[in-house]
Design goal:
The protein is of the alpha+beta class and 324 residues long. It has ten helices and 16 strands. It is elongated.
């Protein structure tokens, strides 16, 4: 008995895509691979993708394509977490964080749709986080790449949206300058994998499911999207020397030396610098002395004074290019 044609759904952020061009590319891919007409679902200000993904599942979609920025991808993935339906990525945003960490081709719609309709399946981990501010209600979310408290969240809050739309991730450079003038540090108490409680003063705490950022920045060099663990970095620079240590570690050691065999030999034994501490684990609990902004995959999720996050291993299937 011949195989029944399959059906994809696409969750589209209409601000991020060229609709006529995308519809034309979809029709060509459907014909190329023998799929039914794709279910077209657009995000709105009130619903950035969760309801549309639920509708796609109810209508029996065999794959859900996320066409938008990191926020659209995160929202669609959250709705698909734990299901048998894979997500396919059509990167259309500023960061394209998950696509970068999976080494997927950017700015190539035809290649992305070929992966959606005829690609292989890759299981990856997701992070789940519970946020609470004081005695307020607990909010639960899922994320794919990174959760952050401190400078990175304040940087996102300070970023000019119009500048970001015109110049992409370079808009963050101006925001960094604004945020670095803020001398406020985080006072945190944290627990990793239910072991002892630690206290620290820090500028930023980042919990990563994967570690590569735009501009080829390798923040968490040992992070892997499917290893069942988080890689965590606590940034605690003290003055100019501390920031210099962080810059050298991230941009020179992680960004240049670590990428080649010769460079790794030059680095010698792996060493931490005083200004940043790396941790690794499956569950991370943190309390802050005051409520701070929290970011997930580059989007703000309000303020929290307490955070608990854990890895949900192999909970999402992603379509990737099929190996020859």
């Amino acid at each position: 008995m011949p195989e029944q044609p399959r059906t994809a759904a696409i969750v589209v952020n209409p601000v991020k895509v060229d609709e006529p061009a995308l519809r034309e590319a979809l029709a060509a891919a459907e014909q190329r691979w023998g799929w039914n007409e794709t279910i077209w679902l657009e995000t709105t200000e009130d619903d950035p993708g969760a309801g549309q993904t639920k509708e796609a599942l109810e209508r029996g979609a065999d794959v859900v394509i996320a066409a938008g920025g990191d926020g659209t991808v995160r929202t669609v993935a959250e709705a698909l977490r734990g299901s048998d339906v894979p997500i396919a990525l059509l990167p259309s945003g500023t960061g394209n964080l998950l696509a970068r960490n999976l080494n997927l081709t950017l700015d190539d719609v035809e290649n992305a749709l070929d992966s959606a309709f005829d690609g292989g399946d890759r299981s990856i981990d997701m992070g789940v986080v519970e946020l609470r501010d004081g005695d307020g209600p607990t909010r639960r979310h899922a994320y794919l790449v990174m959760a952050g408290v401190g400078i990175d969240a304040r940087m996102i809050a300070a970023t000019d949206d119009d500048l970001k739309a015109r110049h992409g991730w370079l808009a963050y450079v101006k925001a960094i300058g604004t945020v670095l003038r803020d001398k406020n540090q985080l006072r945190v108490r944290y627990q990793l994998d239910k072991t002892g409680v630690h206290s620290a003063r820090a500028h930023t705490v980042l919990i990563g499911n994967c570690g590569s950022l735009p501009a080829n920045i390798l923040l968490l060099p040992d992070a892997a999207v499917d290893d069942g663990e988080f890689d965590i970095v606590v940034l605690r620079p003290e003055g100019f020397i501390g920031w210099l240590q962080i810059v050298v570690k991230i941009f020179w050691e992680n960004g240049v030396l670590r990428r080649t065999t010769v460079g790794r030999r030059f680095m010698g034994a792996d060493r931490e610098v005083r200004a940043m501490n790396y941790l690794k684990g499956r569950e991370f609990v943190m309390r802050l002395s005051r409520a701070e902004e929290v970011e997930l995959d580059g989007d703000l999720f309000g303020r929290a004074s307490a955070l608990r996050t854990w890895v949900d291993p192999s909970s999402l299937t992603v379509k990737v290019p099929r190996e020859d």
